[in-house]
């Protein structure tokens, strides 16, 4: 009889990267986390889809530039066919086309490969919990892009006004998201816990029908909060 306590469920993760020198060490390091099981390592998108079909899988850590089937198209197919599987992009590319392409395809997180192990595991955990994590560089690029697109048509913000029932704290949190702060940065700024920040984000996303963090940045800018 197994007398060990069950504990929290472990996240089942696929590591996808076409370079074995990146893929294998990353899978090994992530496998050391007490709440993560690396169930497969894939060299391209077709291998990812096959591993997800064999499942179960919670999160795919996805490179973008892979042969056969790239990360963006793989993310799009996963979003359509396996919406329960979260995708976190881990790539060397942080250009607008890559970022917007991945987020538009349904990626829940986007990190560059200068992210540390703690950043990656935090993003995987957040994605598994239905939250989004964006690298600071990515957030800054999204902010710049959103401001550029919003500038020629400031009246567009009136088409999606923020709901009246947002609390002052929820508006404050939305403004800080719009400024590019992470959950930890918001918590430090407001002197509250990250758990409290997550609660405020979940509430304001539900009230304002915000899809993800990128959408939150756009809404904050459109509302004049960022």
UniProtKB/TrEMBL annotation:
Record keyword Phosphoprotein present: yes
Entry annotated with the keyword Transcription regulation: yes
Domain of life: Bacteria
Record key words, sorted: DNA-binding, Phosphoprotein, Transcription, Transcription regulation
4-aspartylphosphate modifications at: 63
UniProt domain HTH luxR-type: residue ranges: 159-224
Limits of the Response regulatory domain: 12-128
A UniProt-annotated Pfam family: Response_reg
InterPro entries named in the record: CheY-like_superfamily (IPR011006), NreC/VraR/RcsB-like_REC (IPR058245), Sig_transdc_resp-reg_receiver (IPR001789), Tscrpt_reg_LuxR_C (IPR000792), WalR-like (IPR039420)
PANTHER family per the UniProt record, alphabetical: TRANSCRIPTIONAL REGULATORY PROTEIN NARL-RELATED, TWO-COMPONENT RESPONSE REGULATOR
Entry protein name: Response regulator transcription factor
Species per Swiss-Prot/TrEMBL record: Streptomyces violaceolatus
Lineage: Bacteria, Bacillati, Actinomycetota, Actinomycetes, Kitasatosporales
């Amino acid at each position: 009889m197994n007398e060990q306590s069950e504990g929290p469920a472990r996240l089942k993760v696929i590591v996808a990267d076409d370079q074995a020198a990146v893929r294998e060490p990353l899978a090994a390091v992530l496998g050391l986390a007490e709440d993560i099981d690396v169930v497969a390592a894939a060299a391209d998108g077709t291998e990812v889809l096959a591993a997800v079909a064999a499942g179960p899988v919670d999160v795919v850590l996805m490179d973008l530039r892979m042969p056969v089937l790239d990360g963006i198209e793989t993310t799009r197919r996963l979003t359509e066919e396996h919406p329960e599987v979260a995708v976190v992009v881990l790539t060397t590319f942080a250009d607008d086309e890559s970022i917007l392409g991945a987020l538009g395809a349904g990626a829940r997180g986007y990190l560059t490969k200068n992210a540390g192990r703690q950043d990656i595991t935090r993003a995987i955990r957040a994605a598994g919990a239905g939250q989004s994590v964006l690298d600071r560089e990515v957030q800054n690029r999204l902010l710049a892009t959103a401001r550029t697109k919003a500038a020629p048509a400031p009246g567009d913000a009136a088409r999606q006004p923020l709901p009246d029932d947002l609390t002052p704290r929820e508006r404050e949190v939305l403004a800080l998201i719009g400024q590019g702060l992470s959950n930890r940065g918001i918590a430090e700024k407001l002197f509250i816990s990250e758990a409290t920040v997550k609660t405020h984000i979940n509430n304001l996303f539900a009230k304002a029908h915000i899809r993800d963090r990128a959408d939150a940045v756009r809404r904050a800018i459109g509302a004049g909060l960022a």
